[in-house]
Amino acid sequence: MSSPARQPAPRRRINNAEAFGPLLKRWRASRGLSQLDLALSCNTSQRHLSFLESGRSRPSRGMVLQLATALSVPLRHQNAMMLAAGFAPAWDSSPLDAPEMAPVKAAITHMLETQSPFPAVVVDRHYNLIQANAGAQRLLGFLAGPAIAQMPNPNLVRLLLSPDLQGMVENWAEVAAWMIRRIKAEALLEDPVQAVGADPFADLLADPALAALGAPFEDGLPDAPTLYTRFHKDGVRLSLFSIIAMVGTPLDAGLQNLRVELFYPADAATREWFSHP
């Protein structure tokens, strides 16, 4: 009498992939891509991508990086995806003063110095001040007083939106509305899967006064080609706009977090104030 046919063993789910799959799915959803869209951009099949998201298959190291690149996942989050898939992180995260960052730091310092006498700053992804040139130090000291020099890494968003500065910004409602829109958009692009409450600006976004701000220029078209921040203190009026620069192809998570913001005068009076301390 023949023995009954053996039933195939149930497919064993892979523990590492169980963490990776939901992470991949959330990043894909945040980018508005279907499984088919992402699979085609990574030269794989929709079936394989479905298996990766469900945890039935484990990705290779190369596939993790390919998927993360296609989804424009920031490098520090690519490291999290690598760990979730059971691999070592792919990218270093170095401070600006690390030896390997010397050429980049020299370039950034050159940008700040050549921007003088006008302000220029280096900030991290949360707008904490990392480095400032003489023009920026003068502006911050003028607006916030000597106390600003005692703060190791003041947060420029919080400073701009603080009650202390509100009375010094003539177009504060307009500037604040744009700033809130910016930090919301950047948070969604940078970290759409962060834990609830992890947003460093959660308290600002929940502030009723800021939440009540309308959309910028909701009452009409703008009267300038870019947003001008107009300061007014002690009879001095300053009008500035900025340009934000980033490293074109960062291969270090720490470097990807940095922004260089260069400020320019929007009128002759502002140019004169900075040119003659």
Topology:
Layout: H1 15-30, H2 35-41, H3 46-54, H4 61-70, H5 75-84, H6 102-115, E1 120-123, E2 129-132, H7 134-144, H8 156-161, H9 163-166, H10 172-190, H11 202-205, H12 208-211, E3 229-233, E4 236-245, H13 253-256, E5 259-265, H14 268-275
Antiparallel strand pairs: 1-2, 1-5, 3-4, 4-5
Please describe what this structure looks like.
The chain is of the alpha+beta class and 277 residues long. The chain is 45% helix and 11% strand. It has 14 helices and 5 strands. A 5-stranded antiparallel beta sheet has the order 2-1-5-4-3, with helices on both faces. A hairpin with a 2-residue loop joins strand 3 (229-233) and strand 4 (236-245). Helix 1 (15-30) packs across helix 3 (46-54) and helix 2 (35-41) crosses helix 3. Mean pLDDT is 87; it is low at 1-15.
Q: Judging from the principal axes of the Cα atoms, what is the shape?
A: elongated
* Rg over C-alpha atoms, rounded to the nearest angstrom: 24 Å
Strand order of the largest sheet: 2-1-5-4-3
Mean pLDDT: 87
**Main sheet summary:** 5 strands, antiparallel
Any low-confidence stretches, pLDDT <50, length ≥5? 1-15
Strand content: 5-15%
Number of helices: 14
Query: N-to-C SSE series?
Result: HHHHHHEEHHHHHHEEHEH
| Approximate helicity band | 40-55%
First-residue to last-residue Cα separation: 103 Å
**Structural class by secondary-structure content:** alpha+beta
Count of beta strands: 5
